[in-house]
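Hello Y.,

Per our agreement to keep a running log of every chain we model this quarter, I'm adding this entry. I've kept the format consistent with earlier entries: sequence first, then predicted structure.
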Amino acid sequence: MATAILDLPEQEFVMPGTRTCAGCGLPIAYRYILKALGPKTIVTLPACCLTILHGIYPKTPIAVNAVNNTFASTAASASGLAAGLKATGQDDYTVLAMAGDGGTFDMGIQALSGAAERETNFIYVCYDNEAYMNTGVQRSSATPTGAFTTTTPVIPKEQPKKDFIQIMEAHHPAYLATTCSSYPGDLYNKFVKAKSIKGTRFVHLAIPCPAGWLFPTKDTIKIGRLAVETGVVVLYEVENGVLQLTGKTLSLARSGRRRPVEEYLKLQGRFKKILPEQMESFQQQIDLRWEQLLGRAGF
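Predicted structure for the entry above:
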């Protein structure tokens, strides 16, 4: 069961005054990630929306140590930090690597794949807002079918989203989980568990983005919840090859009351040009993955 909001630690590591866009889902998630991991956390991050959140040197609203690295080298930087901590006998620190979908699905895949194969001791988080948001909403391999971006302005993206979670599971990480910024209790629990495990831990974090997805800033939590309620985002964790559904997804699997994908898509301006056949294909993609994951979970 997810930890109740009132039972979460009171200490804050994300202070007021971040530079993210209004309604951004990232600071919501980041707040609970750092609550779960605590003060002895070293974050490494590339050029991305999280860099904007961290602010402009010498000021920052973040109360943990952080290292900025190049776009493609987040996992390489994390590997170096993990090696340095090991060499100096500092085994009470957690190395947290965080990058967006562009810095993970695309440019960062080589370093991450190598580190995961070596079972390097860090937590890697891909916060996925499904495009290169920090540089102007360009298409990434995480952009879903039918979505508008500034590099697919006339004809929306035709290809389906890359199944990067499955790619990472093929590396047999010590822990793999999916979560969403709209469900902080589920998110917090998974990072508490990830902290207690050694080796490579991979977390896919779904982050609604008002600026890129084109919805009102007040609806960030609503959009994230709809993503889960429609099955676009499935909440689960994998340990030793065993998949367990968590949180709202577990409730949906038991009740069978998943909502149509159209309810999620129609609230986002980025899907205003989606074709009927793309809408149908999108639903079919979600249905197929849903049945596969439920089958693995024993439903």
